[in-house]
Amino acid sequence: MNSVLHKANTRGHANHGWLDTNHTFSFAHYYDPERMNFGALRVLNDDFVDGGQGFGRHPHDNMEIISIPLAGDLEHKDSMGNVAVIRQNDVQIMSAGTGVYHSEYNKNPDSKVNFLQIWLFPKERNITPRYDQRTFKPEDRVNKLQQIVSPVKEDNGVWINQDAWFHLGNFKKDFKTDYTINKKGNGVYAFVINGDVTINGQKLNKRDGFGVWDTDKLSIAADSDAEVLLMEVPMN
What we know:
This protein has 236 residues and is mainly beta. It contains no helices and 22 strands. The protein has strands spanning 2-6, 12-15, 19-23, 41-49, 54-60, 64-71, 73-78, 83-87, 90-95, 100-106, 113-120, 130-135, 145-150, 158-159, 165-171, 176-180, 186-194, 197-199, 202-204, 209-213, 217-222, 226-234.
Protein backbone atom coordinates (compact mmCIF):
# COMPACT_ATOMS: atom_id res chain seq x y z
CA MET A 1 0.00 0.00 0.00
CA ASN A 2 1.12 3.53 -0.81
CA SER A 3 -0.41 6.65 0.66
CA VAL A 4 -0.22 10.44 0.79
CA LEU A 5 -1.52 12.64 3.60
CA HIS A 6 -2.71 16.23 3.11
CA LYS A 7 -3.61 17.86 6.43
CA ALA A 8 -6.27 20.55 6.26
CA ASN A 9 -3.90 23.33 7.30
CA THR A 10 -1.43 22.52 4.51
CA ARG A 11 -3.90 23.30 1.72
CA GLY A 12 -3.42 26.33 -0.48
CA HIS A 13 -5.61 29.22 0.63
CA ALA A 14 -6.94 32.30 -1.11
CA ASN A 15 -9.39 34.94 0.07
CA HIS A 16 -10.75 37.10 -2.76
CA GLY A 17 -13.29 38.86 -0.56
CA TRP A 18 -16.36 37.31 -2.14
CA LEU A 19 -14.64 33.90 -2.32
CA ASP A 20 -12.75 32.16 0.49
CA THR A 21 -11.24 28.95 -0.82
CA ASN A 22 -8.86 26.14 0.09
CA HIS A 23 -7.07 24.14 -2.61
CA THR A 24 -6.00 20.55 -1.91
CA PHE A 25 -4.13 20.51 -5.24
CA SER A 26 -2.36 23.23 -7.22
CA PHE A 27 -4.88 25.69 -8.58
CA ALA A 28 -4.82 29.28 -9.84
CA HIS A 29 -2.13 31.16 -7.87
CA TYR A 30 -1.42 28.20 -5.57
CA TYR A 31 1.31 25.98 -7.02
CA ASP A 32 3.07 23.04 -5.40
CA PRO A 33 4.80 20.57 -7.76
CA GLU A 34 4.25 17.84 -5.17
CA ARG A 35 0.50 18.48 -5.17
CA MET A 36 -0.60 18.56 -8.78
CA ASN A 37 -3.14 15.73 -8.67
CA PHE A 38 -3.98 12.32 -7.28
CA GLY A 39 -4.22 10.13 -10.35
CA ALA A 40 -7.18 11.40 -12.41
CA LEU A 41 -8.26 13.70 -9.54
CA ARG A 42 -6.95 17.11 -10.58
CA VAL A 43 -8.85 19.66 -8.43
CA LEU A 44 -10.43 19.56 -4.98
CA ASN A 45 -11.47 23.04 -3.88
CA ASP A 46 -13.39 23.83 -0.70
CA ASP A 47 -15.20 27.04 -1.71
CA PHE A 48 -17.13 29.54 0.44
CA VAL A 49 -18.97 32.14 -1.68
CA ASP A 50 -20.59 35.28 -0.27
CA GLY A 51 -24.29 35.97 -0.75
CA GLY A 52 -25.22 36.90 -4.32
CA GLN A 53 -21.63 36.47 -5.53
CA GLY A 54 -20.06 33.83 -7.73
CA PHE A 55 -18.09 32.74 -10.74
CA GLY A 56 -19.05 34.60 -13.92
CA ARG A 57 -19.43 32.94 -17.31
CA HIS A 58 -16.19 31.11 -18.17
CA PRO A 59 -15.08 28.21 -20.39
CA HIS A 60 -14.00 24.62 -19.75
CA ASP A 61 -13.06 21.72 -21.99
CA ASN A 62 -12.04 18.08 -21.55
CA MET A 63 -12.64 17.95 -17.82
CA GLU A 64 -15.20 16.20 -15.62
CA ILE A 65 -16.45 18.84 -13.16
CA ILE A 66 -18.38 17.81 -10.05
CA SER A 67 -20.04 20.15 -7.56
CA ILE A 68 -21.18 18.95 -4.13
CA PRO A 69 -22.90 21.64 -2.01
CA LEU A 70 -22.32 21.28 1.73
CA ALA A 71 -24.41 24.31 2.74
CA GLY A 72 -26.48 26.86 0.86
CA ASP A 73 -27.74 27.02 -2.72
CA LEU A 74 -25.66 27.35 -5.90
CA GLU A 75 -27.21 28.52 -9.17
CA HIS A 76 -25.77 27.05 -12.37
CA LYS A 77 -26.22 28.30 -15.95
CA ASP A 78 -24.41 26.96 -19.02
CA SER A 79 -24.15 27.24 -22.79
CA MET A 80 -26.04 23.94 -23.18
CA GLY A 81 -29.14 25.72 -21.91
CA ASN A 82 -29.15 24.28 -18.41
CA VAL A 83 -30.38 26.52 -15.59
CA ALA A 84 -30.47 24.81 -12.20
CA VAL A 85 -30.02 25.33 -8.47
CA ILE A 86 -28.01 22.74 -6.58
CA ARG A 87 -28.46 22.35 -2.84
CA GLN A 88 -27.19 20.23 0.03
CA ASN A 89 -27.74 16.53 -0.83
CA ASP A 90 -27.50 17.31 -4.56
CA VAL A 91 -24.58 16.24 -6.76
CA GLN A 92 -23.96 17.93 -10.10
CA ILE A 93 -21.63 16.81 -12.86
CA MET A 94 -20.68 18.53 -16.10
CA SER A 95 -18.64 16.79 -18.80
CA ALA A 96 -16.98 19.76 -20.51
CA GLY A 97 -15.84 17.65 -23.48
CA THR A 98 -15.37 19.72 -26.65
CA GLY A 99 -16.10 22.90 -24.72
CA VAL A 100 -18.77 24.60 -22.63
CA TYR A 101 -19.32 27.93 -20.88
CA HIS A 102 -20.95 28.14 -17.47
CA SER A 103 -21.47 30.36 -14.43
CA GLU A 104 -22.07 29.56 -10.76
CA TYR A 105 -23.55 32.02 -8.28
CA ASN A 106 -24.72 31.92 -4.69
CA LYS A 107 -28.50 31.92 -5.07
CA ASN A 108 -29.06 33.58 -1.68
CA PRO A 109 -28.12 37.24 -1.04
CA ASP A 110 -27.80 36.96 2.74
CA SER A 111 -25.87 33.71 3.41
CA LYS A 112 -22.76 31.93 2.19
CA VAL A 113 -22.73 28.82 0.05
CA ASN A 114 -20.07 26.18 0.72
CA PHE A 115 -19.42 23.59 -1.94
CA LEU A 116 -16.73 21.18 -3.05
CA GLN A 117 -15.51 21.87 -6.57
CA ILE A 118 -13.90 18.71 -7.98
CA TRP A 119 -12.28 18.18 -11.39
CA LEU A 120 -11.24 14.85 -12.92
CA PHE A 121 -9.33 14.23 -16.13
CA PRO A 122 -11.75 12.46 -18.53
CA LYS A 123 -11.51 8.91 -19.83
CA GLU A 124 -12.44 10.00 -23.36
CA ARG A 125 -11.56 13.42 -24.74
CA ASN A 126 -13.68 15.66 -26.95
CA ILE A 127 -17.04 14.09 -26.13
CA THR A 128 -20.24 16.09 -26.56
CA PRO A 129 -20.69 18.24 -23.43
CA ARG A 130 -23.32 16.95 -21.02
CA TYR A 131 -24.93 17.85 -17.69
CA ASP A 132 -26.48 15.78 -14.92
CA GLN A 133 -27.76 16.51 -11.43
CA ARG A 134 -29.33 14.24 -8.82
CA THR A 135 -30.58 14.46 -5.24
CA PHE A 136 -29.51 11.79 -2.74
CA LYS A 137 -31.33 10.89 0.46
CA PRO A 138 -29.12 11.68 3.49
CA GLU A 139 -30.64 8.79 5.45
CA ASP A 140 -29.19 6.38 2.88
CA ARG A 141 -25.63 7.18 3.97
CA VAL A 142 -26.03 6.88 7.74
CA ASN A 143 -23.53 4.19 8.78
CA LYS A 144 -23.16 3.11 5.17
CA LEU A 145 -21.43 4.24 1.98
CA GLN A 146 -23.81 5.87 -0.49
CA GLN A 147 -22.66 5.81 -4.12
CA ILE A 148 -23.07 9.23 -5.73
CA VAL A 149 -20.85 8.96 -8.85
CA SER A 150 -20.30 5.99 -11.15
CA PRO A 151 -19.00 5.21 -14.66
CA VAL A 152 -21.91 2.80 -15.16
CA LYS A 153 -24.96 4.65 -16.48
CA GLU A 154 -27.37 2.11 -14.97
CA ASP A 155 -25.79 2.43 -11.50
CA ASN A 156 -26.82 4.62 -8.63
CA GLY A 157 -25.08 7.98 -8.88
CA VAL A 158 -24.44 10.58 -11.54
CA TRP A 159 -22.62 9.18 -14.58
CA ILE A 160 -19.00 10.21 -15.14
CA ASN A 161 -16.76 9.93 -18.20
CA GLN A 162 -14.03 8.20 -16.18
CA ASP A 163 -13.51 4.91 -14.32
CA ALA A 164 -14.32 6.66 -11.05
CA TRP A 165 -16.66 5.93 -8.16
CA PHE A 166 -17.57 8.44 -5.41
CA HIS A 167 -19.24 7.56 -2.12
CA LEU A 168 -20.48 9.63 0.82
CA GLY A 169 -20.69 8.22 4.34
CA ASN A 170 -22.23 9.76 7.43
CA PHE A 171 -20.89 7.66 10.29
CA LYS A 172 -21.78 7.54 13.95
CA LYS A 173 -18.96 7.34 16.50
CA ASP A 174 -17.34 3.88 16.72
CA PHE A 175 -18.88 2.70 13.42
CA LYS A 176 -16.51 0.64 11.26
CA THR A 177 -16.70 -0.45 7.65
CA ASP A 178 -14.56 -1.46 4.67
CA TYR A 179 -14.40 -0.13 1.12
CA THR A 180 -13.37 -2.45 -1.71
CA ILE A 181 -11.69 -0.98 -4.81
CA ASN A 182 -13.90 -1.37 -7.88
CA LYS A 183 -11.16 -1.50 -10.53
CA LYS A 184 -7.61 -2.80 -10.28
CA GLY A 185 -5.09 0.03 -10.55
CA ASN A 186 -7.41 2.61 -9.01
CA GLY A 187 -6.67 4.50 -5.82
CA VAL A 188 -8.96 6.22 -3.34
CA TYR A 189 -8.71 9.80 -2.10
CA ALA A 190 -10.64 10.27 1.15
CA PHE A 191 -11.73 13.76 2.19
CA VAL A 192 -13.07 14.25 5.71
CA ILE A 193 -15.92 16.75 5.51
CA ASN A 194 -16.56 16.70 9.25
CA GLY A 195 -15.39 14.78 12.30
CA ASP A 196 -12.54 12.36 12.93
CA VAL A 197 -11.88 9.01 11.30
CA THR A 198 -9.10 6.45 10.97
CA ILE A 199 -8.50 5.02 7.49
CA ASN A 200 -6.01 2.16 7.09
CA GLY A 201 -4.47 3.15 10.42
CA GLN A 202 -4.12 6.86 9.58
CA LYS A 203 -5.97 9.24 11.91
CA LEU A 204 -7.73 12.04 10.05
CA ASN A 205 -9.59 15.16 11.13
CA LYS A 206 -11.98 17.67 9.58
CA ARG A 207 -10.97 18.67 6.02
CA ASP A 208 -7.93 16.35 5.94
CA GLY A 209 -7.26 14.44 2.73
CA PHE A 210 -5.72 10.98 2.49
CA GLY A 211 -4.88 9.16 -0.73
CA VAL A 212 -4.30 5.41 -0.83
CA TRP A 213 -3.25 3.19 -3.74
CA ASP A 214 -1.70 -0.21 -4.46
CA THR A 215 -4.29 -1.84 -2.24
CA ASP A 216 -7.65 -3.51 -2.84
CA LYS A 217 -9.44 -2.44 0.33
CA LEU A 218 -9.75 0.40 2.85
CA SER A 219 -10.72 0.03 6.50
CA ILE A 220 -12.64 2.97 7.93
CA ALA A 221 -13.37 3.65 11.61
CA ALA A 222 -15.28 6.67 12.92
CA ASP A 223 -13.49 8.16 15.94
CA SER A 224 -16.37 10.65 16.32
CA ASP A 225 -19.53 11.34 14.37
CA ALA A 226 -18.07 11.97 10.93
CA GLU A 227 -18.86 12.67 7.29
CA VAL A 228 -16.48 11.38 4.63
CA LEU A 229 -16.23 11.58 0.85
CA LEU A 230 -14.40 8.74 -0.92
CA MET A 231 -13.19 9.36 -4.49
CA GLU A 232 -11.92 6.26 -6.29
CA VAL A 233 -10.01 7.23 -9.43
CA PRO A 234 -7.54 5.73 -11.92
CA MET A 235 -3.93 6.32 -10.91
CA ASN A 236 -2.50 6.22 -14.45
